[in-house]
Amino acid sequence: MLVWDRSGIYVDGTIGGGGHARAILDRLDESGRLIGMDRDLEAVSVSRARIAGGSNSRVKIMHREFTELASVLEAEQISRVDGVLLDLGVSSYQIDTPGRGFSFQAEGPLDMRMDTGKALTAADIVNGSSRDEIERIIREYGEERQARSVANAIVRTRANAPLASTARLADTIRSAVRRQWAVKSCARVFQAFRIAVNNELDKLKTSLDTMLPLLSHRGRFGVISYHSLEDRMVKRTFETWASDCICPPGLPQCVCRHKRVAVLHTKRPVVASREEVTKNPRSRSARFRMIERLPNEQPTH
Ligand SMILES: C[S@@+](CC[C@H](N)C(=O)[O-])C[C@H]1O[C@@H](n2cnc3c(N)ncnc32)[C@H](O)[C@@H]1O
Asked: Domains (ranges, CATH) in the chain?
């Protein structure tokens, strides 16, 4: 449970359509506050209309990245918060809006920007990067085994005319992999370009590196991730925070003098129940992990 003090200050760093924010707000009393952030202006407008409308002064929703939390809190004159939630990745709204270019199942521009005010689109990467860079993106961020064939197919296709639509990219991927793997490969390659366009892993790393000092003592930090690259980063960071020794295995005695700064609330990640997956199939790959900052401990970095 993220909310442990009903009159505390909480942050939803990825407010999207406001579902989690609403649930947090429902657990707060009249003096509890919620700050919502999203890099997608449409998500900010939607969630403002849904939960911050009228005179709801307990809620503030901003068009900001979660990596900017420290400066947001400084501007709000808040020194520490009692809980932060990050629900990573794309929202259903973004995927289901063909014009945003996130889905390989709908025709749309090859865009994939979460923040449409930023310049770099998927088309820029797909048409402007070297063959090796495209292969690296697909292999690293998509964990796609056929990365080389897909990169070669993209380079061949764009030699005729730049790839400008999701449908053309999806056709190109299908042409490079076996038919039985086509759907999974499309999903992985689209995920790879989306991660690259939005620099998602660096954003998560920055947030993990800077989060602890922003939490009150006993403050909680929960992250929902949807693929193994993110989940691995979160898991390792949380385990380091919760460990009294981070020496490499095999040393006869501890030399690191590391002191734990948090306790793990989730030894194993929490996954969606069967009912949740039936209601929302995208929750199938969700993994939730949470820590609690220990009282009277200073962050070690
Ligand atoms: C999975 S959705 C969140 C859904 C939300 N929890 C809800 O209940 O509707 C992820 C959201 O995070 C946003 N997002 C992704 N990276 C972000 C970042 N670095 N800073 C702020 N928002 C980000 C996306 O724009 C998207 O709206």
From this structure: 9-92+201-293 (3.40.50.150), 97-198 (1.10.150.170)
Nearest CA to ligand 1 atom 14: 14
Q: Does ligand 1 lie within 6 Å of residue 47's CB atom?
A: no
pLDDT digit string, tens, across residues 65-110: 999 999 999 999 999 999 999 999 999 999 999 999 999 999 999 9
47 CA to centre of ligand 1 in angstroms? 11
Rounded distance between C-alpha atoms, residue 11 and residue 37, angstroms: 8
Give me 275's structure tokens: 């009912």
**DSSP letters along 103-165, please?**
-TTS--BS---SSTTSS--HHHHHHHS-HHHHHHHHHHHH--TTHHHHHHHHHHHHHHS---B
> pLDDT per residue over 8-41, tens digit each?
999 999 999 999 999 999 999 999 999 999 999 9
Per-residue pLDDT tens digits for 155-205: 999 999 999 999 999 999 999 999 999 999 999 999 999 999 999 999 999
pLDDT bracket for residue 300 (50, 70, 90): very low
Q: Does the beta carbon of 19 lie inside 6 Å of ligand 1?
A: yes
Report the C-alpha gap between 108 and 81 in whole angstroms.
40
Name the closest-CA residue to atom 4, ligand 1.
16
Give the pLDDT confidence score for residue 55 in this predicted structure. 56
Q: Give the three-state DSSP class for 244.
A: coil
Which residues are registered as beta bridge partners of 262? Answer: 293
Angle at 252 between CA 247 and CA 255, to 5 degrees: 40
Task: Return the SS3 of 97.
Answer: coil
Pocket of ligand 1 contains residue 37 by CB under 6 Å: yes
